[in-house]
From TrEMBL:
<keyword id="KW-0804">Transcription</keyword>
<comment type="function">
    <text>May play the central regulatory role in sporulation. It may be an element of the effector pathway responsible for the activation of sporulation genes in response to nutritional stress. Spo0A may act in concert with spo0H (a sigma factor) to control the expression of some genes that are critical to the sporulation process.</text>
</comment>
<keyword id="KW-0902">Two-component regulatory system</keyword>
<dbReference type="InterPro" id="IPR018060">
    <property type="entry name" value="HTH_AraC"/>
</dbReference>
<dbReference type="GO" id="GO:0005737">
    <property type="term" value="C:cytoplasm"/>
</dbReference>
<keyword id="KW-0963">Cytoplasm</keyword>
<keyword id="KW-0805">Transcription regulation</keyword>
<dbReference type="GO" id="GO:0000160">
    <property type="term" value="P:phosphorelay signal transduction system"/>
</dbReference>
<dbReference type="InterPro" id="IPR051552">
    <property type="entry name" value="HptR"/>
</dbReference>
<dbReference type="InterPro" id="IPR011006">
    <property type="entry name" value="CheY-like_superfamily"/>
</dbReference>
<feature type="domain" description="Response regulatory">
    <location>
        <begin position="3"/>
        <end position="120"/>
    </location>
</feature>
<feature type="domain" description="HTH araC/xylS-type">
    <location>
        <begin position="418"/>
        <end position="516"/>
    </location>
</feature>
<dbReference type="GO" id="GO:0043565">
    <property type="term" value="F:sequence-specific DNA binding"/>
</dbReference>
<dbReference type="Pfam" id="PF12833">
    <property type="entry name" value="HTH_18"/>
</dbReference>
<dbReference type="InterPro" id="IPR001789">
    <property type="entry name" value="Sig_transdc_resp-reg_receiver"/>
</dbReference>
<dbReference type="Pfam" id="PF00072">
    <property type="entry name" value="Response_reg"/>
</dbReference>
<keyword id="KW-0597">Phosphoprotein</keyword>
């Protein structure tokens, strides 16, 4: 029912409104009646209502002030003001407070009832509109949540986005991660009916943390839990305590077995594939015993030292950026041979492949290159996941390394040429030596000479001379600059030599060229 408050300083009118109208037929209930606005406002400070019916002129606080209070503190409530003809212009000032309707004294009961019915209709329409908006907001929130989980899952699986949109994508999905741990959950048994209950409890247990829980496959789920960089507690210990509670609850109440792996603490989302590898190894450990919770930092099973893994990955990254393709391949072959000899789990080996793939993607992004341009008609990520044996996997990785180092080398060469040309454009008016340019681009002068000639078809000297001549042509089109001045302005110390070079290049002396352009 609609809750109604009546305010009037005349008791007869209050009692008449209450007694002569069948409020129940209007689906309304009188929850309060007051003889002045101050009493009503005090009541409304602690109570909610749907309709406020108030006289305009009252002692203490008038109807306008009541309407203002309702507008500010009960925006969904409707106010009906009743007033005499002489007050009507005054009453119209209340429109700014979203007054629903006015009743002009004297008025019939039928007119008052009709006004109340129109007001309840407005309330119903508003509630329907609010419900629709709320429903849309919930749907939008659900879509945003799914999109956010998709972005996080892509990081975990090593799938990267276009670098030009990466920052905007993280910001638009409200994703900010200073440091994080990855939790993987393996639910045993073939029956998946209880999985939603289990995941619901996991979400509830981690609800006080910034966490993203997602499905990886039919029985494996993951949670990326983010932590602020200034926390004053051990995040691994906190997660371990929560995971013990999860294990106990699932075992006792859902009657399922759940195995949980916790990765190391990481400080960059780009290392999410490594965190996945660590958590996956923890899950693999459950195969050898009844450990329902394994923490990677405490895991004493057969594994490489984490620092050894990170060092190798850093070495591969260094080789890629320095065009040391053969050395990178040698490191990969050594790593995967060791893993093969140790009979490491397949998921762990493939996770290492994904980590190397991630390094390659990062290198592509840092050079502002397009992924599809580098790997034309190739899908290294899928090839890594679908590799049927370790030999196929290393072949995919080695081919990927060769492709990217070659592409980056070409990209670097183009960048070097661009830098050389930019330097000459900025300094052509000064004496320029090959040593100056090589120092500017940080490359050996002999190598730079060969590279520039190979990529442009001209030597650096020829390009610089052509540039100076073109600049001289522009200056010769002006009336008031002498030839010897132009020679100095374009970098020639000797005006005679300038004239010689200019004629060789154009077939005219500087003065002839100037005369020809001015006729």
């Amino acid at each position: 029912m609609y809750q109604v408050v009546i305010i009037d300083d005349e008791a007869v009118i209050r009692k008449g409104l209450i007694g002569y109208i069948n409020w129940q037929d209007l689906n309304c209930e009188i929850v309060g009646d007051f003889d002045n606005g101050l009493q009503a406002i005090e009541y409304l400070k602690n109570s909610s209502v749907d309709i406020v019916i108030s006289d305009i002129k009252m002692p203490g606080a008038n109807g306008i002030e009541v309407a203002k209070f309702v507008y500010e503190y009960h925006p969904h409530a409707k106010t009906i003001l009743y007033t005499g003809y002489s007050d009507f212009e005054y009453a119209k000032s209340a429109i700014q407070y979203n007054v629903s309707d006015f009743i002009v004294k004297p008025s019939t009961i039928e007119n008052i009832i009709n006004t109340i019915q129109q007001t309840t209709k407005k309330i119903d329409e508003q509630r329907l509109k609010d419900h629709h908006i709320q429903s849309l907001e919930l749907k939008l929130s659900d879509v945003k949540k799914k999109e956010k989980l998709k972005v996080i899952k892509n990081f975990v699986e090593g799938i990267k986005m276009d670098p030009s949109t990466l920052e905007d994508t993280l910001k638009s999905h409200d994703i900010s991660v200073d440091q994080f741990c990855l939790l993987l959950y393996k639910i045993s048994g073939l029956n998946t009916e209880n999985h939603p209950q289990t995941i619901q409890f996991i979400n509830l247990s981690l609800n006080d943390l910034d966490q993203y829980t997602f499905l990886l496959n039919d029985s494996t789920y993951g949670s990326l839990v983010a932590f602020d960089q200034h926390i004053d507690y051990d995040p691994i210990e906190l997660l371990a305590n929560k995971c013990h509670d999860i294990n106990s609850f699932v075992d006792e109440y859902i009657k399922e077995q759940i195995f949980i792996g916790i990765s190391n603490l990481h400080t960059n989302l780009e290392t999410a594939p490594i965190a996945f590898m660590e958590a996956q190894r923890c899950l693999d450990n459950s195969f050898y015993g009844k450990n329902h919770l394994t923490i990677y930092s405490n895991f004493d099973g057969p594994k490489e030292n984490p620092s050894f893994v990170e060092i190798n990955l850093e070495r591969i990254m260094h080789c890629i950026t320095k065009d040391k393709c053969d050395e990178a391949i040698e490191i990969i072959m050594s790593m995967f041979t060791t893993m093969s000899n140790n009979k490491e789990p397949i998921d762990y080996i493939k996770s290492m492949g994904i980590a190397i793939y991630t390094i390659c993607i990062n290198a592509i992004h840092k050079h502002n290159l397009n992924l599809t341009d580098v790997f034309v008609n190739q899908e290294p990520y899928r090839q890594i996941l679908n590799a049927s044996c370790i030999d196929d996997l290393t072949q995919v990785l080695c081919h990927m390394i060769r492709t990217i180092t070659q592409y980056l080398c070409e990209g670097n060469n183009y960048y070097i040429i661009t830098q050389v040309n930019a330097y000459m454009e900025s300094h052509y008016h000064r004496p320029i030596k090959l040593k100056d340019i090589s120092e500017h681009v940080h490359i050996n002068s002999s190598y730079l000479s060969r590279l520039y000639k190979d990529k442009t078809g001209q030597t650096i000297t020829e390009t610089l001379r052509n540039l100076r001549i073109e600049k001289a042509k522009q200056l010769l089109k002006t009336d008031n600059i002498k030839t010897y001045t132009i020679a100095v302005l374009v970098g020639f110390d000797d005006p005679a030599y300038f004239s010689y070079v200019f004629k060789q290049h154009t077939g005219y002396s500087p003065s002839q060229y100037k005369n020809n352009t001015q006729t």
